[in-house]
Design a protein that fits this description.
The structure is a single chain. The protein contains 13 helices and no strands. The protein is mainly α. It has one domain.
């Protein structure tokens, strides 16, 4: 276990150094001089946002497994986000890591069910936030009708797809997925997998049926977590003396979420997010350079989070669940 932890730490440090090199150290240094030691302010705001996301996950997990501790999940959440930042697979890397990190503490069925529900709520809140952001965008900027139509069609399509998946999830989503894979003969499905998938489906169904109030509360916590990202952007704008309001920050955070999802294959979306921030600032009538500067400062905050996540990864202890 100690060797695997050290190996992960070394690999993480190497990837961290690579990202730092690609992000241009000189640019980061120049912007750090502007913001100075006040960088800890957006960092703390960001950590507060992650804490609300961990709180939402804990609220879900606690209904399934009463022994789970909030700050333990918060630590796992931060390490998972570190993985998401280092590996070009987005949540496809961080979420499996979360599950594997918890497998010696709790039954895998409960872990999987909690992560699926938490991610479902996260995507739901993200879609709502994007809708609000696009609505603000249409009010603030004269968007060509063709682009409006495309954005609306894409959002409606995503919403319909999410709704269908959500309805299916309340019944037998994983079992149906394994059945589909088995029919396509992509690879053989073991009987054990089917049994575990049925257990996860049953756990998810029971949660939605018996904890409707908790479901609403977790949506609120998740929305507060997303607002943490908006507040972080706004605070950086204030610290760098950039033009823009809190509403602008919400719009920027919501719209760039689409870009982040679309280009998740790019490691840490280097260059992509800088361009997106610059474009949105330009559309809002501000200097595009200010948008790029803002994202570079945010990237410094991400590097700080990665460093904290790597340190936390060394504190993980192995324990067998009963």
């Amino acid at each position: 276990m100690k060797i695997s932890k050290i190996t992960f730490f070394i690999i993480g440090v190497a990837l961290f150094a690579l990202l730092l090199y690609k992000a241009n150290i000189k640019e980061i240094s120049a912007n750090l001089k502007i913001i100075g030691y006040n960088i800890y302010i957006p960092f703390c705001i960001s950590m507060t946002g992650y804490f609300f996301h961990a709180l939402a996950w804990h609220k879900i997990f606690y209904q399934i497994e009463k022994t789970v501790k909030l700050f333990f999940l918060f630590k796992i959440k931060l390490i998972g986000e570190t993985i998401n930042s280092l590996i070009p697979l987005g949540m496809g890397a961080g979420d499996p890591f979360r599950a594997l990190s918890l497998r010696t503490f709790f039954p895998m069925v409960k872990i999987t069910a909690s992560i699926i529900i938490e991610r479902t709520i996260y995507f739901f809140v993200s879609i709502i936030s994007i809708y609000i952001g696009i609505f603000i965008l249409f009010i603030r900027i004269k968007v060509p009708s063709e682009i409006k139509s495309i954005l609306i069609m894409v959002l409606v399509g995503i919403s319909v797809l999410f709704l269908l998946l959500f309805i299916k999830q309340r019944k037998n989503f994983l079992s149906s997925l394994l059945h589909f894979i088995e029919k396509t003969k992509l690879f053989p499905i073991k009987k054990y997998w089917k049994e575990k998938a049925e257990e996860v489906d049953k756990t998810i169904y029971t949660y939605y049926k018996e904890h409707k109030k908790i479901f609403l509360i977790t949506n609120v916590y998740t929305f507060l977590g997303r607002l943490g990202g908006t507040l972080e952007i706004y605070m950086i704008m204030v610290l760098l003396n950039l033009k823009g309001s809190f509403v602008d920050a919400f719009l920027i955070h919501a719209v760039t979420q689409i870009v982040n999802l679309a280009f998740s294959i790019v490691p840490a979306t280097l260059g992509v997010m800088e361009g997106a921030y610059g474009l949105i600032f330009h559309l809002l009538g501000h200097d595009a350079t200010d948008g790029i500067t803002l994202q570079i400062v945010r990237r410094v905050r991400v590097f700080m989070m990665i460093f904290v996540g790597l340190l936390l990864s060394l504190t993980m202890k192995k324990k067998k669940h009963t």
